[in-house]
Amino acid sequence: MSIWEQLRQIKEDGLRELENFLDAKELDSIRVRYLGKKGELTAILKQMGKLSPEERPAVGQLANEVRQALEAAVAASQEKLKEKELAARLEKESLDVTLPGKRRPLGGLHPLSIVQNDLIDIFQSMGFDIVDGPEVETDYYCFEALNVPKDHPARDMQDTFYLGENLLLRTQTSAAQARVMEQRTPPIRIVCPGRVYRADEVDATHSPVFHQMEGLVVDKGITMCDLKGCLEQFAHEIYGPETKVRFRPSFFPFTEPSVEVDVSCSECGGKGCRICKGTGWIEILGAGMVHPNVLRGCGIDPDVYSGFAFGIGIDRLTTTRYRVSDIRLLFENDGRFLSQFQGR
Ligand code: PHE
Predict the structure, then answer these.
(1) Ligand 1 neighbourhood includes 313 CB (under 6 angstroms)
(2) CB burial class (10 A; 0-12, 13-18, 19+) of residue 86?
(3) Which residue, among 289, 260, 299, has the nearest Cα to 178 in the 3D structure?
(4) What pLDDT sits at residue 24?
């Protein structure tokens, strides 16, 4: 084969091979085989010395053409390969945006909030305003104004967290009573929900922080009948119309007369069970007619006005409604417990 033919053959073979390579590795080996230092083209150029001086320029030119053609074909193939690789990568990394997303767990209301919201709804529908009071309270509003002077034995009823000589964590939402009576003139009809604190040992039924809702009604001609009617209505709305309501005489320094209110146990219907500790009744609140001393201390004339007050235990309402056997569950904020409640 003449050197001319050899060059044309190399070009033809090279271009054909460059059209049918499989991958980057094969492409590179084709390139080395034809264009490398020890490649076929170089081998032929080494024979140039044997040519006559007349032939050399023309053969040189052809060799250059062949080299350029092959180099161009290699470059084009490399480009094609890159495009193929990019397409493959995009294919592999592509996202299907129509796939369903990962669901994040949604929070919900705490059972205490659900019950508190229900209470607010009930009392709002009876015309009560919702008020807020401070959890850090003065001795005056928590005790003194409620007819519990210093050294009064009734202070022992409630073990208090003191923050200073006259500053404390309120032990009862009753602390809101005097604040409201000082600020408003009768007729007064408010409820005040919130946290209260007592230095109690923690067990299944006691917690140093718990929740109450205070109620206060002051107007001309308010009697014990109003108290009974209002609280019976409330109990039936929260526990159902078949629930029995019982008023027991009791004592609170700021009400006279005072009562404690029980409802028939919703679990056993009054027969006696674990929830009601065998009595058939569940105590849900303390109440009474506002003591004349309390009215007077707030600048309200007890000969003109009278009123009633009540304090509902929200935690007790919550544990009995949802049959929660241990009050501590309400404060541990375990998601597995909390996720079982639905309400607004
Ligand atoms: N404050 C009382 C308690 O915590 C409840 C109560 C409120 C009683 C209002 C009478 C009137 O036990």
Answers:
(1) no
(2) exposed
(3) 299
(4) 86
Tell me the CA–centroid distance for residue 258 and ligand 1, in Å: 9
Which pLDDT score is estimated for 154?
A: 67
Joined together, the tokens standing for residue 40 give: 């076929």
Among 156, 172, 196, the mutation site with the greatest number of ligand 1 atoms within 8 A of its Cβ is 172
Q: How far apart are CA 341 and CA 344, in angstroms?
A: 10
Provide the 10 A C-beta neighbour count for residue 66: 24
- Burial of 318 per CB tally in 10 Å (0-12, 13-18, 19+): buried
The DSSP annotation for 110-153 comes to -HHHHHHHHHHHHHHHTTPEE----SEEEHHHHTGGGT--TT-G
Neighbours of 96 (CB within 10 A): 5
What's the pLDDT score for residue 157?
62
Tell me: the pLDDT tens digits for 43-75? 888 888 888 888 888 888 888 898 998 898 889
> Closest Cα to atom 9, ligand 1: which residue?
310
* 14 Rama sector, left if φ>0, alpha if ψ -120 to 50, beta otherwise: alpha
CB-side exposure of 58: number of CA atoms within 13 Å? 7
Ligand 1 atom nearest 174 alpha carbon: 1
pTM reported for the whole predicted model: 0.72
Question: 3-class DSSP state for residue 259?
Answer: strand
The span from the CA of 93 to the CA of 87, in Å, is 10
